[in-house]
Amino acid sequence: MKPALPIEKTARLVARALGVTPLELDEGLRPATEADFPAVVSLRRQVLRENLGWDDEAYLRWRYQFGSPHLATCWVCTRGDEVVGMIGVEALQVSLAGQQSSLHAVMDLMVRPDLDGCGLGVWINQAITHRLTQGLTSGLTPGLTHSAVLAIGSNPNSKGVVARTFHPLPDRRSHTHPLHFGNFMAKRLSHPWLASLASSVVGAGMGLLRVALLWARAPFIQVEQVTQLGPEVERLLARSRRPDRIEVMRTTAGLTHRLLHNPRSVSQVWLARKSGEVVGMVAARFMRIEGGRLALQLMDIVLDPQSERAALSALLARVTADGFRKGAEYLSVTTYDPQLERFFVAPLFKRQAHEYETMAWVCPHDALRQAVEAGAGWSLFDIHTDRDQT
Amino acid sequence: MSDRTLTLAEAMEMMADAFNEPLENLSPDTDRDSVPGWDSMGALMLIAELDERLGLELQADVSREMRKVQHVLDFLAAHGALSA
Predict the structure, then answer these.
(1) Were A189 and a residue from A67, A125, A195, A197 both cysteine, which residue would form a disulfide, CB within 3.0 to 4.6 Å?
(2) DSSP string for residues in A66-101
(3) Which of A114, A115, A126, A164 would best serve as a mutation to test chain B binding (most B beta carbons within 10 A)?
(4) What pLDDT, in 10s, does the model give residues A61-76?
């Protein structure tokens, strides 16, 4: 594959298209301020148009520095007083065998529609990556040196940009567990009564499998849904870290904000306890899929390695029961941890390939890069993406 | 207008390169939507190729309107950059 243009060439072409100099283009890329908020809202309204089905102002204040706390930094690309593009940058701390590294995930790239096609989105991606990997944003992010930059997931328009701007990593891997079979059978059986009967029979069979493979494997685990994350979750987070895995660090405050305060999509958080101690946590959210149907998505999984199988079995048993009761068609989970993926296998789960579950990065850290090339897993889940649809 | 020209074969190869698409998959009738690499990156690569090889500037609004390979060839012809 032909690599992307050198950033200098991209800058020259894009600056020409925008009627500015490359220096003006570069200086126009900066973290957004409160004064930029109306322009960012307007930009997103122009880009998302009829797909904008949520309170975007509340969402922007939740995700970005327009509100506090927040998860990420919104960078704007400006031309004079105009905001012509934006990109989100989320700082992640990762740890591998006790060694901490700085990493940023990029997301939410948007370009004003009338400038679409001039390469501005490509340049914004290249410029942010260049600044972060060269440590050029240290004045804005105290203590930042050279950071790796990660692109988690893509879409039809960004896949090519990601593939040529970053170094590709193996795709994230999705697995689904069917809960209701009505739609599946209706597509395959021409008689509605037959489809309904088949759906009931197969659904009952799958329910029995859940009892045998989930409920029965966790007899001493209690599971409850919670609306607050406290010190017991903090203790779980510390115990959950594995030396063989790239740990994307979490805090209870960060998880609370991410999972429970998202104005677009609040997650359910379930805790598993064994002898009173929290040994596992999953977060799940309902989402609308085509045809207005409902599906359930696991956003995060945190497990005590000493009780991994039992805790996950208990949690999945409760989450699937709740999803089934509320009419979710299936449960899906996207992982990047080969050890954890051993649990998401047949007959309960099926691997589901997705074209846009891509992973790619630019990484200046030798040890981290070598670990990834050797196949180390990551504690990376959908909480680390910007997929916040309801 | 460009003082350099491409043959049809060279123009097709240029696009195959820009869009990271096998040459045999491209013809003048090929729709943009059927070329996965003709996305924002592919569009930029085409802009760069036209700039480098022919000294031509392909503006964003014109680029967006190009829905077929033929439209790129038409652009080249209109700027005197496609040799017979």
Answers:
(1) A195
(2) TSSS-S-EEEEEEETTEEEEEEEEEEEEEEETTEEE
(3) A164
(4) 999 999 999 999 999 9
